[in-house]
Amino acid sequence: MSTPNEPAKPSASAGSAAASLSQVTIATPAEHDGDEPSEDTISSRGRKAKRAKEAKDAKQQERDNDGIGPTGRPYREIPDPPPLDRHGPALVMAMCNQKGGVGKTTSTINLGAALAECGRRVLLVDFDPQGALSVGLGIQPHELDQTVYNVIMERSVSITDVIRKTRVDGVDLLPSNIDLSAAEVQLVAEVGREHTLLRVLRPVMNDYDYVLVDCQPSLGLLTVNALTAADGVIIPLECEFFSLRGVALLIDTIEKVQERLNPKLDITGILATMYDPRTLHSKEVMARVVEAFGDTVFDTVINRTVRFPETTVAGEPITTWAPKSAGAAAYRALAREVIAR
Ligand SMILES: Nc1ncnc2c1ncn2[C@@H]1O[C@H](COP(=O)(O)OP(=O)(O)OP(=O)(O)O)[C@@H](O)[C@H]1O
Ligand SMILES: [Mg+2]
């Protein structure tokens, strides 16, 4: 795989995007099934109308583009996911990028929920001591007695005792909390330290069709464990100037794990996230990503929308929080692509 170059121009929008995310208004589910946040003031109604018009323009542009997607390529034909008459053995996917805040956790939750809507049984593994995946599924990590940490560090703790059901049918969670931060150091002294996650997942592999591992933003031993256990890697990449920085190092790590620890490891796909169809900047970054990674880039692109931060607060996936939103549709399309790959 070639080493990607960075886009030529720096982003002017990262700061303002962060600022707009911090102004999110949280609404009740009943109010919310579109793509826009509910806001009550007259000025916010004006903003809402403006955004609705912009969204409409973007959709019109998509139609004018004659079936060409945001990747600049025509959408590929994706077959309907075949129904399953039995479950397992699971394919393990590591959701990985050492850059922080690129949509790893959001994509793990929503891809997991969308795969479950296709009749797949899904285990989500929170492999980040921040516990954001657990929070995003409505679980308070500090209240947990046992987490993935106990499963990997204590041989007496069985994975089935720690896995819990979520509010989403077909989606289970192996939760995490800050305890996991100690594992990075403690694992160093273990025999077969890179294979620890693979070893603990083995007993449940036949219960699931997909195991999605939400990695922390680093390339340390926990991430190497996720890559060693994985069949595929999904790399969420923010459509932003600095997003390609560091990807070469990530690819290098994936190749080393493939050579030394896990020959079956493959890059399942690159997922462009936080895409803004109205900005030239997003389009330029997208073009660079497709130039560097070609067909590995999923046709599905996740747009930037405040619906995602809202779902984190709600503690559920967008597919149930706002089932008719464009964000939900995008993760459903991604699930179809993942099943087809
Ligand atoms: N498509 C999107 N549009 C707007 N906001 C988003 C989108 N995807 C994720 N977010 C928000 O961006 C923030 C970071 O997302 P997320 O936690 O999924 O990233 P991450 O890569 O897991 O971060 P970390 O590296 O810290 O684990 C969250 O507040 C999330 O709600
Ligand atoms: Mg995360």
From TrEMBL:
InterPro entries referenced in this protein's UniProt entry, alphabetically: AAA_dom, DNA_Partitioning_ATPase, P-loop_NTPase
Ranges of biased composition (kind: Low complexity): 11-22
TM helices/strands, residue ranges: none
Pfam families: AAA_31
All copies of domain AAA, residue ranges: 92-267
Region described as Disordered: spans on this chain: 1-89
Superkingdom of source: Bacteria
Record's compositionally biased regions (Basic and acidic residues): 52-66, 74-88
PANTHER family, per database record: COBYRINIC ACID AC-DIAMIDE SYNTHASE, P-LOOP CONTAINING NUCLEOSIDE TRIPHOSPHATE HYDROLASE
Function recorded in the entry: May play a role in septum formation.
Family: Belongs to the ParA family.
Name this polypeptide is given: Chromosome partitioning ATPase
Species, as recorded: Amycolatopsis keratiniphila subsp. keratiniphila
